[in-house]
Structures are given as structure tokens and as C-alpha cells.
Amino acid sequence: MAATKIYLLLALALLQCLSSMASDRKTYIVHMKHHLRPSIYSTHHDWYQASLESLSEEQPSSSSSSAASLLYSYSSAYSGFAAFLTDAEAASLSRSDSVVGLYEDTVYTLHTTRTPEFLGLDVAGEGLTAGDKLDSSDVIIGVLDTGITPESKSFDDSGMPPVPTRWKGECESGPEFDPKSCNKKLIGARSFSKGYRMAAGGGNFMKQSDDVASPRDIDGHGTHTASTAAGGHVANASLLGYASGTARGMAPRARVAAYKVCWKTGCFGSDILAGMDRAIQDGVDVLSLSLGGGSAPYFRDTIAIGAFTAMEKGIFVSCSAGNSGPQRSSLANTAPWIMTVGAGTLDRDFPAYAVLGNGQKFTGVSLYSGSGMGIKPVGLVYGDRMNGSSNLCLPGSLEPGLVKGKVVVCDRGINARVEKGAVVKAAGGVGMILANTAASGEELVADSHLLPTVAVGMKVGNQIRAYVKKTASPTALLSFGGTVLNVRPSPVVAAFSSRGPNLVTPQILKPDVIGPGVNILAAWSEAVGPTGLDTDTRKTKFNIMSGTSMSCPHISGLAALLKAGHPDWSPSAIKSALMTTAYNHDNMQSALRDAADGSLSTPWAHGAGHVDPQKAMFPGLVYDISADDYVAFLCSLDYSSEHIQTIVKRPNATCSRKFSDPGQLNYPSFSVLFGDSRIVRYTRQLTNVGAARTLYQVHVDAPPSVGVKVRPAQLLFRNVGEKKKYTVTFAAKKGAAAPAAGHAFGSILWSSKSNQVRSPVSFMWNAVM
């Protein structure tokens, strides 16, 4: 017995030791000098594996279970691999002449119907024509997200032609996912979880966390984004009766390939890179990523690195701008070879009403679909009459004795909007008024709450708070107005949509455009309720969500349509067409406004404007950019040769050609920085994709403190495909004071009898960020 006890204690100690060793490991992405592979290795994978095995030989005390492990070998999106290493192993590996650098894995986050009609697309068909009826069935959209729900009617393949023969992808088998569930619409489904598994504690964590190690979507986000981009027509779609109608994606005949790279705790860079790597090899035409992190140099940005290879292969990459607005300089995914997409509203709303005991009636929004709270007003309470944090309705903050049977006013912020309602319901409340604070301003986002809820803006919220504080026995009654169309004004820039200026490269104006991203109806996973809360047992095949996560796949789908109409266009030509034809006015013909405070929006919020797919199909002129142009751009950032090779993945990538200023890139917009010099001069080149023998005249809009000269002022294109250059000189006027805010905006417009090609311009003095 004593010997057995000693053995068990030793075994326990060993397990604890191994666990400790494993916990000291981290996932690293290792950049290798791809061209230096020794001839004794037949593949780069073999070389990478041998490099890791040599680390174990240097540390013979390491057991096989705790040895460095190879997670991914990248072949297209990156020159290198991902591995699970200790700091000592990482340091040892970094000393190898074959290694350019090692980077710790990064966690990215998700940036979480009527849309086709709002964009001017034909609900019954593809909606855009280029001569004969447009068919996007040869275009493949790769969606990197939380997976897919293959049973959704949005991915039905009725009437679809055979899968393009060039397609090399597949549908993987896994828990709760039968590869036979794929079809001629959903033609690929894969999952990538090794980075997530390692960060989460290894092998059994997937089962413990209720995540599913397969392409199956148990979150809903991936199904929603994929169907937004390319979902087929589904009649009688709605969220529990809201937004009822025919749902369809932007390119309903395009193919979908799902790459599950996002999990319970986020999206890990090593998994994202593996997904992009595979998608490029599989043969996608468009990559859609509704996720991102903060700002980082491009050589440290996993998405930017993978997207560069995709761009070189002719793949259009669309990414969400982020949901950190209206904070300034809050953008994600700012690389110029990526389409950075912000969010705007639709002309559809879901009104709800709060009537106070003093007779005041306020309008808000809601997607509540239950039986309601009756016709009698009930008591109304607000947090400052309870405890310190109850105004936010955080879990555990409400006192049931004060809340039971009443409507609770909850301040927006800190925790999820729908969770606040769950907290109120758990404490016995019968309704909630979700009131914005200064951080959210007047922006209203509808949610499918678990109890009667009305969301209101900051101004109305302040009036309701004041009423509760000043009234001895305040009361309220909530009611709901269903779905309302033709809302004015719309679009409006969403307050949550991340803003410029671009911190990584201030000379590149971002975001590029905005698209519909507020209250978007799309397909959903029945594995989760519409709120995503564990306590939400409701099932729905469609859900309404908001975020730049929703606007991104709109642009991905539109890019697929443009790719179908113009298969010879490069990714930069498609981006240019979407940007230069975007509009800057709402449906009342007034300038676009910002939902944060109702003020006029600027290109730091809406980029070139709101996309107009009908005009984008026939833009007249495009600003085209080659991979070599992007290399010259990177060289202008004074990156080291190793950093440039990390992005470009060419052993011979040199700076034999270098822009004098990053702003010299042939981008469809301008960002002018007045620093040491008051004069900034850029040259751009336009390519004629419209009719031959077309004359364009330039029109300039600039602030009073800036002089702008464009030479030449006219461009005559005699042939289709002809290229013409122009030079624009921006000069901060002598003696003219810079704007008090340190920035201003304008535009450069080339117009012909049939086309207008517009580029927004931002100006900053002393590079104020």
C-alpha cells in the first residue's frame, strides 16, 4: 500500500510537472527564409518538422509529450509555420540563420431581407447586368468566420450548375458535420483550431468548452455573414416575425466556402493564417473576414500578410473596419490591399415605444417578440436608487425586492445589451428601457431581447432618468411597432463603426467605404438563440444583427458580382470601382450624417461613401494597383528587407523602386499631411474601363485654407484600356490659419457625360492624429 501511495504521488507530481511545462508554452508564428530549404528535405513541412525536432535534441530532458509541436505549415499565405514553444525554444530557434523572426500568436475578435432593395439590386435575380443576365455562379467566396450551418435554406443548391472544375477545396468530416451536407452551393467547409486549442489548454478543452471541432457553426455569426454575402433566395424569412420577406445575399448564385477560424474565446492568428493559406490554395475568388484586431505594422498583422498573397493571386479581400467607433483612430484592417468596410443604416426600422406616467411618449427600437407587458403601466426604477453598479444592470447588481414586477432603466455599456435584459428578467423585472450614454450617443441598435425592452438614445435616456429621479412613484408602459420601411434619413453612419485617421499609414485614407451594417437579417444557426445567451432557448432560422461584421460581407458579395461582370479586373480595380462610385448623401438628398451625434459625417467615418453597386459595375475609370506598386509602397515605409519579405514572401523582394511618400500609391482616395512642408504633390494614373473617345473634366472641392491644382485638368481617353496620369498639388495657403480641429476634407472628381469618378481627400496639419 505504501509503495502504491508513493507511486501515485510520483505520478501526480509528474503530471503536474508536465502540465506546468505545457502551460509555459505559447504558439509562435515562425517566419522562415523559404528559399533556404536544404535539399535533403523534400518538402518545407519536413524541414520545419526537423527544425523543431532539433530543439528537443538540444533539451534531452524534455519528454515527447512536452516537446515543441508543429501546428501548421504554411505554403501560400506565409513563408513559415506555427509551433507550440517554450520561451527558451523560441529563443533557440530565433538564432537559426534560416529564421527571419518569431511572433507570438495574436487573438482577433469578431466584429459583430431588405438590403438588396436598399442597394438597388433586383430581389428576384442577381440585380446587376453587363449585357446578358449576369451569373456569378463561377465566383467562389471564402468566408473566414465561426463556421457554417449547411442545412440552412440560404445554401440550397437548387438550379445551381456543376461546381467549377478549378475548385480544389473540400468539405471536411467532423463532429456534427457530414461532408455530404455540402452541395453545389456550399462547396467547401474546413475548420482550423490548433492555435485555439493550444491557447485554451490542449486536447480535451474543445469538449469541455462545448465548442465543436468541425466546420459546424454553433455561434451563428459565420452562417449570418456567409448568407449575407451569397445566400440564395429564401421566401418568408424573418426573425420571429420581424423584417419579413424574401432574404437573399448580395451574390445569390455565387459559391460559398466556409473556413472556421473563430472559436469561443476568439480567432487566433495562427488559425486565421491557416484558413487563408488553405483558401488561397483551394481557389477562392473573394475572401471575406468579419474580424480583426488593433492597429499594427503590416509585417505583424496576420490578416494583412495573408491578404497580400491573396491579392497577388487575384483574390479580392474584404474586411470589417471594427466596432470601436465613434472613437478616433480606432480602425482595424487598414492595409491598402484590403477593402476596409465601415457600417451604415438601412431604410428599415423596428420602432418601440415607452410611455411614462407623466404622459410623455418616447420612440426607440426593439426586436422583442413575446406577449408583451399588457396595457397597464408598472413601476419604473433606475440604478442610482439601488446600488452603485445597478445602473448598468451587470450580473448580480439588481436587488429583486426593488425590481420585481417593474420596468428597469439600464445604461448601455460594459456588458452586452441583451445580457442586461437577462439580468433584469432574472431579478424579477418585467421590462427594460435600455438608455444610451455619451459613448453611444443617439445610435439605436435593435436586439431580440428576452423581455419587453425599448432601446433609446442618450437625449431621451436623460429625460427618462430625470423623470425617475424627480418622481415619487414613476411608471412606464412599453409597446412595440413591428417593422417600418422607407425610414428617413438613411443611410446614416453607425456610431459603432470604427473611424480614421489611419494610425499605421496616415497617408492612406481609411475606411474605404461603408455598407449596410445595422439591423441586418440573414441566416442563423439553430444551435443558439437569437441573443446568443445560454438562457435563450428560442430557435430561429434567421436573425437580425448589427456590426461592421455585417457590412463586410455585403461588400464581399458585391465584389463577387463585379468579378462575374468583369472577370479580367484586378482586386484593386474592383475596389476602385466600388469607392469612386460611392455616394455621400442620404435618401433626403442631404449629406451623410453620423449616428453618434447627428452631425455631418466625414471620410474618416464613411471613407469614399456608401456603396452603389449599380454604378460600380460601370465606373468609367479605375485606379489600378499592381503587386509591385504595393512593394514600392512598403519600401516607402522604411521597413527592413526582412519585414518586407514577411509580407511579400519573395526572396528577391528589394527596394529598387521606392515611393518618396506612401501617399504616392495609386489609391482611389487621398490623405494629405501638412508637416514640414506646406506643399504635397501626388501623381495618379487612371485606366479607362468605359467607352472609347471619352473626355473627363476635373472638379475640385477643397477647404478655404488649401489650394489645389490638378494638371492636366482634362483627360481624353481614345481607347478602352488606355491609361492616363495626372498630378495634383495640394498647398496649405500662406497666412491662412489651419482649421481649429487640425483637419479638413474635400474631393477630386473626374466627370464625363456618363460617369463621375470621385476621390475623397482628407487634410491634416502637423500630422495631428
- Oligomer, anyone? single chain
The shape is globular
Number of domains: 4
Helix content: 10-25%
Topology:
Elements lengths: L1 H22 L2 E7 L11 H15 L10 E6 L5 E6 L1 H8 L4 E6 L2 E4 L4 H4 L10 E2 L1 E2 L6 E6 L40 E6 L2 H7 L4 H4 L12 H10 L3 E6 L2 E6 L7 E6 L1 E2 L2 E3 H14 L3 E4 L1 E2 L9 H11 L3 E5 L18 E6 L3 E2 L1 E6 L4 E5 L12 E5 L17 H4 L3 E5 L5 H10 L4 E5 L17 E4 L1 H13 L4 E6 L3 E2 L27 E4 L3 E4 L18 E4 L2 H18 L5 H10 L22 H4 L6 H4 L4 E2 L4 H10 L4 H8 L21 E5 L4 E10 L5 E8 L4 E6 L2 E4 L5 E10 L10 E9 L4 E10 L4
Parallel strand pairs: 8-12, 8-15, 9-12, 15-17, 17-18, 18-28, 22-23, 23-24, 24-25, 32-39
Antiparallel strand pairs: 1-3, 1-4, 2-3, 5-14, 5-16, 6-7, 10-11, 13-14, 19-27, 20-21, 20-26, 22-26, 29-30, 31-33, 33-37, 34-36, 34-38, 35-37, 38-39
General description of the model:
Residues 389-464 form the PA domain. Its main location: secreted. Belongs to the peptidase S8 family. Residues 664-762 form the Subtilisin-like protease fibronectin type-III domain. The active site is at residues 145, 221, 549. The chain has 769 residues and is an alpha/beta fold. The chain has four domains: 25-104, Alpha-Beta Plaits (2-Layer Sandwich), CATH 3.30.70; 115-344 and 491-616, Rossmann fold (3-Layer(aba) Sandwich), CATH 3.40.50; 351-480, Glucose Oxidase, domain 1, CATH 3.50.30; 666-764, Immunoglobulin-like, CATH 2.60.40.2310. Helix content is 23%, strand content 26%. It has 18 helices and 39 strands. It has a seven-stranded parallel sheet, with helices on both faces. A seven-stranded mixed sheet has the order 21-20-26-22-23-24-25, sandwiched between helices. Helix 7 packs parallel to helix 13 (548-565). The longest helix has 22 residues, at 2-23. The N and C termini lie far apart (71 Å). Mean pLDDT is 90; it is low at 1-22 and 61-65.
